[in-house]
């Protein structure tokens, strides 16, 4: 493969079908049974904090951010993050994570939580969570990671991780539009 120059864009509705395909390739049908997916099913992700990578106009990777609350902490749950097989190990996923986390912090998010592989995410600023978080399904506590630059957040972070409905009217309208189309 020759040198590639990915372009990173904010996700929009025209990306939905290809993102679904990329996530199916990366995770298969079993992903719908995972604890993180149970949180995502509670409400829509925040498109303004979700991004795609394109190469020559083709979407080849994506990351989504879902508004959540855990204890009294407003934050976002990162994921899924997926890269098409031909574009793995080129730094595209890492760059999508960096962009999404920076955008969430800029928007005032206190924490970004994910369930993932510590060796991949720790160099990107994520650390094991010390607070006790409860997901709507089983999860390996060693895979729950957080990124935050807020001090003493652990005292407010804990309990159930749930979709945050106050994330904005756009997300609420989109959720109801989706339900009406089903």
Name the descriptors.
182 residues; alpha+beta; Aminopeptidase; nine-stranded mixed beta sheet; 9 strands; 28% strand; globular; disordered C terminus
Verbal overview:
The chain is of the alpha+beta class and 182 residues long. It has a single domain (7-175), classed as 3-Layer(aba) Sandwich (Aminopeptidase). It has 5 helices and 9 strands. It has helices at residues 16-27, 35-40, 92-106, 118-121, 169-181, and strands at 7-10, 51-55, 58-70, 73-83, 111-115, 127-128, 133-134, 144-147, 159-163. Strands 1, 2, 3, 4, 5, 6, 7, 8 and 9 form a 9-stranded mixed beta sheet that branches. A hairpin with a 2-residue loop joins strand 2 and strand 3 (58-70). The protein is globular, with a radius of gyration of 16 Å.
- Per the principal axes of the C-alpha atoms, what is the gross shape? globular
| Mean pLDDT rating | 88
Main β sheet profile: 9 strands, mixed
Helix-strand sequence? EHHEEEHEHEEEEH
Helix content: 25-40%
Number of domains: 1
CATH superfamily: Gcn5-related N-acetyltransferase (GNAT)
CATH topological fold name: Aminopeptidase
Count of beta strands: 9
Q: Output the radius of gyration.
A: 16 Å
Termini separation: 41 Å
CATH hierarchy: architecture: 3-Layer(aba) Sandwich
Strand content: 25-35%
Q: Which CATH C-level class is it?
A: Alpha Beta
Q: Unreliable runs, pLDDT <50, ≥5 residues? A: 168-182
Q: Give the count of helical stretches.
A: 5
Q: Which structural class do you get from the secondary structure elements?
A: alpha+beta
